[in-house]
Amino acid sequence: ATRYAGAGYASEAARAVINLLGERYPSRTIVAECRPQNAASWRVLEKLGFRPTGEDGHRAGRKRLVYVAHAAR
């Protein structure tokens, strides 16, 4: 919802999922897909440590990003 935009909820929720996936599947690569035009979501992913691969996503209009653990803050 718009009233929650910028409050950090997306980052907090995504960080929890990333941590859980990292604990349960330490040898797996975490991949996300996002529309480049969705600037807010793209920023959240990059802030969390995802980096664009330059590849198209499986869903139309989306690009792939891969989680790079050491890039996260």
What is shown here, in short?
With about 70 residues, the protein is of the alpha+beta class. Helix 1 (about 10-25) packs across helix 2. Helix content is about 35%, strand content about 20%.
Q: Indicate the radius of gyration in whole angstroms.
A: 12 Å
Count of alpha and pi helical runs = 2
Strand order of the largest sheet: 1-3-2
Counted beta strands: 3
The major beta sheet can be summarized as:
3 strands, antiparallel
Distance between the termini: 26 Å
Overall geometry comes to globular
Q: Summarize the helix and strand pattern as letters.
A: HEHEE
Query: How helical, in percent, are the residues?
Result: 25-40%
Structure description:
This protein has 73 residues and is of the alpha+beta class. The chain has two helices and three strands, in the order αβαββ. The protein has helices at 9-24, 39-48; strands at residues 31-34, 50-56, 63-67. The chain has a three-stranded antiparallel β-sheet, with helices on one face. Helix 1 (9-24) packs across helix 2. The termini are far apart. The model has no long low-confidence stretch (mean pLDDT 91).
Task: Describe the protein's topology.
Layout: H1 9-24, E1 31-34, H2 39-48, E2 50-56, E3 63-67
Antiparallel strand pairs: 1-3, 2-3
Which structural traits does this protein have?
3-stranded antiparallel β-sheet, 36% helix, 73 residues, alpha+beta
